[in-house]
Amino acid sequence: MNKQQFLNDLEDILQREEPCTENDNLDEYEEWDSLSQMSLIAYMDRTFGVKLGFDNFENVKTVADLIELAGGKIGD
Amino acid sequence: MEIKFDKEQRFIVTGASSGIGENTALMLNKLGATVIAIGRNKERLQMLVEQSYSPENMFTEQKDLTEDIPSLPQYVKSLKDKYGKFQGLVYGAGIGKVEPLQMIQYPEVIKEFETNYFAPLFMAKGFADRRINNGSGSACVFVSSIASFCSDKGHVVYAGSKAALSASVKSMAKELAKNGVRMNCVSPSAVNTPMLDEHSRSEEQMKKYPFGIAETEDVSNLIVYLLSDKAKFISAQNYIIDSGGVS
Ligand SMILES: NC(=O)c1ccc[n+]([C@@H]2O[C@H](COP(=O)([O-])OP(=O)(O)OC[C@H]3O[C@@H](n4cnc5c(N)ncnc54)[C@H](OP(=O)(O)O)[C@@H]3O)[C@@H](O)[C@H]2O)c1
What we know:
Chain A is mainly alpha-helical. The radius of gyration of chain A is 11 Å and the shape is globular. Chain A starts with a helix and ends in a 7-residue tail after the last helix. Chain B is of the alpha/beta class. Chain B has a single domain, classed as 3-Layer(aba) Sandwich (Rossmann fold). Chain B has 8 helices and 7 strands. In chain B, helix 4 packs parallel to helix 5. The longest helix of chain B has 23 residues. Chain B starts with 9 loop residues before the first strand and ends in a 6-residue tail after the last strand. The chains are: A mainly alpha, B alpha/beta. Chains A and B meet through loops of A and loops of B. NADP nicotinamide-adenine-dinucleotide phosphate binds next to helix 1 of chain B.
């Protein structure tokens, strides 16, 4: 999967009217909450086989940090 | 107490071609809302428009909800693109057969679960998207059944499908509370609609309903209340309407 596909998926997961970009700060998204994190955990597992827990989001600040969580499975 | 809606408040009503869904669609329309009425039977949907208080605010969509369940969220989005964002959803479509365990057959079990459980789940998924509903104040009501609490003989499959629905609605309601979206169920016992079979109308069964068989508006009154802002503190509940004491 490339970054743009991930950004599109993220926009859907967060149900945002606006597109997501790599440098966006997640704290500025009102949609970024425990439920959307739960959805993202399910997404990462289903799409990449990457198993995450809520703890993994503790040091996550930007969309780019989320991409890193996929452990190299999201290419350019 | 007066409940009023305006035509900018759009409600999707499934099962609108008959029974409880039909009566709910008419009531919402009469109270000023715009209704997108979904059913399979075209003639019955046409009759619904003819009976409407404001036919110009009663829109019909012919759709078999079990035809392609995975695409239902996309279907709800297409309705939003056509009509605008939604204030509410009533899931009134449903089927129910009286069949004891000995008689159940897998394809029929699947069909019942598709109609009574999988389709409402995926309609709810579509509705719950922030880009589809009006946010705070939006509400859904799912028509479950008394069978989801206390099932009788012959309701092996039906009761399971309705119990699954009621249980899921509670979870959905908790997920959506943050957005101000409310989700509730109503669980009637016998209601005078084409679904009510001869068995349920029998003298033996009638003994269970001290108030007799409910009319559709006995159920729609509660549905409409739950959709209105008068019920703004009520979510994740399942209301029994059991004609005086079945449960
Ligand atoms: N009547 C009762 O005693 C009673 C008691 C407890 C709970 N309930 C529940 O109340 C709800 C409404 O039932 P009702 O009594 O009003 O029954 P009804 O008069 O038979 O109406 C059922 C409605 O569901 C629609 N429907 C069924 N399968 C569908 C499908 N695959 N796609 C689209 N629409 C579909 C029908 O549409 P078409 O006719 O256009 O196909 C019809 O509008 C059901 O969930 C039922 O389980 C009823």
